[in-house]
Amino acid sequence: MQRIGDAPRVRRILVISAVLLAALFLLLPLVAIFAQAFAQGVEVFWRNVSNHYTVRAIGLTLFITVLTIPVCLVFGVALAWLVTRFSFPGRRLLQTLIDIPFAVSPVVAGLVYLLLYGRNGWIGNWLDGYDIQLMFAWPGILMVTIFVTCPFVARELIPLMQAQGSRDEEAAVTLGASGWTLFRRVTLPNIRWALLYGVILTNARAVGEFGAVSVVSGAIRGQTNTLPLHLEQLYQDYNTVGAFSSAALLALIALLTLAAKASLEWRAARQEA
Amino acid sequence: MITLANITGSAPKRVLPGFGLSLGISLTFVSLMLLLPMTSLFGQLSGISLAEYWRIITDGRVVASYIVTIGAAAVAALVNAAFGLLLAWVLVRYDFPGKRLLDALMDLPFALPTAVAGITLATLYSSNGWMGRLLDPLGIQVAYTWVGIALAMAFTSIPFVVRTVQPVLEDLPNEVDEAALTLGASDATAFRRVILPHLWPALVTGTGLAFVRSLGEFGAIIFIAGNAPYETEITALMIFVRLQEYDYVGASAIASVVLAVSLALLLAINIWQGRFIKRLHGGRG
Amino acid sequence: MSIRLTNIAKTFGRTQALEPINLDIHDGELVGLLGPSGSGKTTLLRIIAGLEQADAKPAGRIQFGERDVTQVHVRDRRIGFVFQHYALFRHMTVFDNVAFGLTVMPRKERPSSGEIRARVHRLLEMVQLEDFAKRYPAQLSGGQQQRVSLARALALRPDVLLLDEPFGALDAKVRQELRRWLRHLHDELNFTSVFVTHDQEEALELSDRVVVMSNGRIEQIDTPEALYRAPANRFVFEFLGDVNRLEGDVRDGVLTCGDARLAVSELDDGREELLLRPHELKLADAPSDAAQLPVTVTSISPIGAEVRVELEADWLPAPWLATVRHADFERLAISRGQRLYAIPRRWHRFDDATAKPRQATAA
């Protein structure tokens, strides 16, 4: 087999430059996070992580993530089912609309929620009459997190379900399956890995969202501080090791995400073979 | 006007179950979570005159932030186009130890929270950071300059290029290479005349997406930017600053510009891509 | 179970996939829907199944026996459907695939798991795959997968079996085998079957009756024999086999085309186009009284019991094909480049694409 760029010299130059650039550009920052976090030893790292405010920030972040995932999951599956299994006017439009969160700057996303649900917004104003405050509290953080993460599951599912077509479901219907049984026994096994990957991406983004959350959170230490906001405050306070201890936790989640993706892809490749 | 009733009511019986349910969930979600909040922007802006709107969005400091943001995003996108193409090529065409690790590493910027990336890059490139210490004696200042902004943008958006070019390159059949080589083309010529035209749509799409992402990026940039007015302030930060001053109208006006530009670019990319796909695959998109 | 379609039409957007169609299929019949792609045959099959809904106007009707199933959901129509590419559930074993329909029955009607196991094994035995119960679809050949999909469709004892291009994706030899096997199964179990195919040979070999379709219309419904002997129109004639064309001017009962002449006493003067089947052409050393059609042999390919000979001539815009028996082939010592005379035994003529045919037997 003869291919373009197969000459050993070309090959060596390209591989080495790619690896070097990637190491400098991507790997070095990753290493730096952990180096900074452990700069004063494991003990200091542990003290930083187990600090009251950090623990509260971790708790809030987990709480938000745990609530976000099921919402995104239900919405993603419903939307993917809708646009890949039925044809109806407006289908294309709907498919385009779910990309909005990807195109919108996180700060703008936070802003529009603040305008609507904040005390000056018409819904916020009305809720204020009942003494309900969504902004600068966890419900606001939850809402913007859902906003920025909602496309992930749908975006993983739609191309796959489109490619698979509805033949399997049609076959199941001719055999008498209906509703939930059909989805659980025929559709779900076909999409489970994409679904899982969508959830992993949702999780990564939900845990790490910064721009949108910083607009609506108010960043009250110990109350409305998520982990990314918390590390920002530490960094602004010149507590570098503290900031990087939190950063290391988030980077660890990112690494787990990458590992999960790699293993899912490996599984898919093996299934195809 | 499309209403729920005339979609579900007049449509013939559907073979697969769940149309009503999935339509209900999707429409409720899209209108409440996506569209309704967007309308608040226009609500906020309807209170001011066009002249006032124009004054806000053409304020000197804001215009300077447009220039910084667009300039840095353009540089980042171009760098990413070259770097992303190289990475995609190496990952698809060659086998070497550590290849799978490199492949996995490509998604790091998507998986890593932007604030983490931000403080890390700022620390690395500050004058006493690992990279800063190397670059400082050479007179290269990255942190707190627009170079730092472009660097942060490039970091967060590199996967767009790699991940759009990679599958296209993978699908390119071997015969394309062989045909070019049997016709006597040199490697460089064959790449430029045969391979690149195939990758072009994906490369432009990926670069375009990277550019759009860079325009809106916030968390990764603010730490390394220095945020000096007129010099290293990005537009997203301007929105944030206005908000902290409780100037909701000003924030909304600037946000509307960012939003309009992002959506217009995304639409343009989609249309352009659709046309290219039609040309390559004939008819059906 | 008989099937009766009355006034069934289907439009997709602005294109009419099916003109209003009437069709009667008798109990126990094996009927083939034959037509080129885009003729509406698969749409018709999917409408019978209930996978597609016929247009509301004109109001059509679908009956299975006495039962009106027009508004009945596909789930409740009691049909078995075999999909073009099998549509086996890849994550289930062969056994689970076949058992699927039984296991999703409402709890009250569902057979016991022991009975399900017995029934599935009986079905697998019938399709000769009893040893493959634990395998996954990906581990089977195409022909085996098709048999699993058939067993799966039959598990619920459907009134009607519908097959969409059942052998389309298989290679020629397996296809032949499966065809024979399906015919056998059909005769044994005696259900009503409808299958879609674009392969005329398959339709003619397998069906009791064939429904020939084009452009969303039924062109002819007949037994294979009648169809071949007496095609209703030019489309059917051309679709069912190779065709040679002869176009020329008729004057005083003789058709002339360049230096070719053919006696056609039945025809009036004017421009005419005649159609001839390859096996209706005889080759000879010399012209006959009725036919003087000089041709040159350009290619010879022996296929099975016959030899296919390609013929060209100045007066022919496109080459002709003739099939001759080996005995004649040897007697004439046909070789490439040889000049011979074609003598039609029979020819066909259609006024236009849909009108009634005229045929004549030449001398």
From TrEMBL, chain A:
Annotated keywords: Cell inner membrane, Cell membrane, Membrane, Sulfate transport, Transmembrane, Transmembrane helix, Transport
An example Gene Ontology molecular-function term: ABC-type sulfate transporter activity
Domain named ABC transmembrane type-1: residues: 58-262
Main subcellular localisation: membrane
Membrane topology: Multi-pass membrane protein
Record-linked CDD domains: TM_PBP2
Pfam families: BPD_transp_1
GO CC annotation, single: plasma membrane
Subcellular compartments: Cell inner membrane
Transmembrane segments: 55-84, 96-116, 136-154, 194-220, 240-260
Function comment: Part of the ABC transporter complex CysAWTP (TC 3.A.1.6.1) involved in sulfate/thiosulfate import. Probably responsible for the translocation of the substrate across the membrane.
Self-association and partners: The complex is composed of two ATP-binding proteins (CysA), two transmembrane proteins (CysT and CysW) and a solute-binding protein (CysP).
UniProt cross-references to PANTHER family, sorted A to Z: SULFATE TRANSPORT SYSTEM PERMEASE PROTEIN (PTHR30406), SULFATE TRANSPORT SYSTEM PERMEASE PROTEIN CYSW (PTHR30406:SF9)
Protein known as: Sulfate transport system permease protein CysW
Organism lineage string: Bacteria, Pseudomonadati, Pseudomonadota, Gammaproteobacteria, Oceanospirillales
Automatic annotation (TrEMBL), chain B:
This protein's UniProt keywords: Membrane, Sulfate transport, Transmembrane, Transmembrane helix, Transport
InterPro entries (UniProt xref): CysT_permease (IPR011865), MetI-like (IPR000515), MetI-like_sf (IPR035906), Sulph_transpt2 (IPR005667)
One MF term in the entry's GO annotations: ABC-type sulfate transporter activity
SUPFAM superfamilies: MetI-like
Keyword Transport: yes
Gene Ontology CC terms: plasma membrane
Cellular localisation: Cell membrane
Main localization category: membrane
Top-level lineage group: Bacteria
Family per record: Belongs to the binding-protein-dependent transport system permease family. CysTW subfamily.
Protein name (Swiss-Prot/TrEMBL): Sulfate transport system permease protein CysT
Automatic annotation (TrEMBL), chain C:
Any one annotated GO CC term: ATP-binding cassette (ABC) transporter complex
GO MF assignments: ABC-type sulfate transporter activity; ATP binding; ATP hydrolysis activity
Keywords, sorted A to Z: ATP-binding, Cell membrane, Membrane, Nucleotide-binding, Sulfate transport, Translocase, Transport
UniProt xrefs under Gene3D superfamilies: P-loop containing nucleotide triphosphate hydrolases
Keyword match Cell cycle: no
SMART domains: AAA (SM00382)
Pfam families: ABC_tran, TOBE_3
NCBIfam families: 3a0106s01 (TIGR00968)
Protein name (Swiss-Prot/TrEMBL): Sulfate transport system ATP-binding protein
Organism: Franzmannia pantelleriensis
Source lineage: Bacteria, Pseudomonadati, Pseudomonadota, Gammaproteobacteria, Oceanospirillales
